[in-house]
């Protein structure tokens, strides 16, 4: 889908406030409510807007540990990728998972209540997963920037 300046404005406002009502959104981008609603629905149907959600403050809900974990797999285990990919879907501690370049195969973002919870996850789940060869953890000491907002300066516009 090609995005114009109006689409980019819609996306910017929806990323700032996913609960904004259509009438207020239309006012902000100088469109009629019906035109605005048509554009939002088109963005949703095209998959540009994939979902709406509430972003929780991890500290406020008791998740003190935030860690990035590099996982290297043994390649001599049959279907190691498929099995690992299925396994991590059942682990609530894993809030992000990525296939990466470099020595490791995966980068996981793990959230835990405390260091004991994190340690139990690493020792009792991750290390015991078939095919796992090596794990390297980086525990976040301080977050400088963490956002899901995609700035419109990165997006291609048809205007």
Automatic annotation (TrEMBL):
GO cellular component: cytosol
Limits of the HTH asnC-type domain: 3-64
InterPro entries, sorted: ArsR-like_HTH, AsnC-type_HTH_dom, Dimeric_a/b-barrel, Tscrpt_reg_AsnC-like, Tscrpt_reg_AsnC/Lrp_C, WH-like_DNA-bd_sf, WH_DNA-bd_sf
UniProt xrefs under SMART domains: HTH_ASNC
One GO term (biological process): regulation of DNA-templated transcription
Protein's UniProt name: Transcriptional regulator
CDD domains from the UniProt entry: HTH_ARSR (cd00090)
Keywords of this entry: DNA-binding, Transcription, Transcription regulation
Molecular functions per Gene Ontology: sequence-specific DNA binding
Keyword hit for DNA-binding: yes
Organism name: Solimicrobium silvestre
SUPFAM superfamilies, per database record: Dimeric alpha+beta barrel (SSF54909), Winged helix' DNA-binding domain (SSF46785)
Gene3D superfamilies in the record: 3.30.70.920, Winged helix-like DNA-binding domain superfamily/Winged helix DNA-binding domain
Domain of life per record: Bacteria
Pfam families with a match to the protein in the record: AsnC_trans_reg, HTH_24
């Amino acid at each position: 889908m090609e995005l114009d300046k109006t689409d980019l404005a819609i996306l910017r406002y929806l990323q700032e406030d996913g609960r904004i009502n259509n009438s207020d959104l239309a006012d902000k981008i100088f469109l009629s409510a019906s035109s605005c609603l048509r554009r939002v629905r088109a963005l949703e149907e095209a998959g540009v807007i994939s979902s709406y959600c509430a972003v929780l403050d991890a500290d406020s809900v008791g998740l003190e540990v935030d860690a990035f974990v590099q996982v290297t797999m043994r390649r001599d285990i049959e279907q190691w990728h498929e099995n690992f990919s299925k396994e991590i879907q059942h682990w609530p501690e894993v809030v992000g998972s990525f296939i990466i370049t470099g020595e490791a195969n995966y980068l996981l973002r793990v959230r835990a209540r405390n260091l004991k919870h994190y340690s139990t996850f690493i020792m009792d789940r991750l290390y015991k997963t078939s095919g796992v060869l090596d794990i390297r953890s980086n525990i976040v000491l301080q977050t400088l920037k963490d956002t899901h907002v995609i700035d419109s300066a990165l997006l291609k516009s048809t205007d």
